[in-house]
Amino acid sequence: MECPNCFEIFEHCIRVTNGSPLNLALIGHWDGWQPFGTSYRGCGSLEVSIANMTKNDRQHVEEVYVVGFIPCYQVPNLPEALDPFLQPLLQDISKGFIDGFTIFN
């Protein structure tokens, strides 16, 4: 591989390992749409998928978890506008990793 900053070339090999199930990486995604055909009324969803899976596996519908819906017409078009919606999600994820998650069948 070649570093794009310093242009140093070094060897790298991909390794796969098994370990703690807490070694979990998540991908957050925001998807907005206008169901009524106008640009001032819409909605969106916050979705989470597991990054530790192969891309083909994590893109299946059963591996994408919708964690919230947001009415877009009430959210200004600013990056920090999603903070009130993301903060509770991140708190729940952090608490889950510390205290554990309850799994329902």
Q: What is the domain tally?
A: 1
For the secondary structure, the number of strands is: 3
What is the number of helices?
Answer: 2
Q: State the strand order across the main sheet.
A: 1-2-3
- Which blocks of ≥5 consecutive residues have pLDDT under 50? none
Give the terminus-to-terminus CA distance.
44 Å
| Overall pLDDT | 76
Order of helices and strands: EEHEH
Shape: extended
- Tell me the major beta sheet: 3 strands, antiparallel
Structural account:
This protein has 105 residues and is α+β, with helices and mostly antiparallel strands. It contains 2 helices and 3 strands, in the order ββαβα. The protein is extended and about 50 Å long. It has helices at 55-58, 83-99, and strands at 26-33, 43-50, 64-70.
Topology, element by element:
Blueprint: E1 26-33, E2 43-50, H1 55-58, E3 64-70, H2 83-99
Antiparallel strand pairs: 1-2, 2-3
What is the gist of this entry?
This protein is α+β, with helices and mostly antiparallel strands and 105 residues long. It is 20% helix and 22% strand.
List keywords for this structure.
105 residues; alpha+beta; 20% helix; three-stranded antiparallel sheet
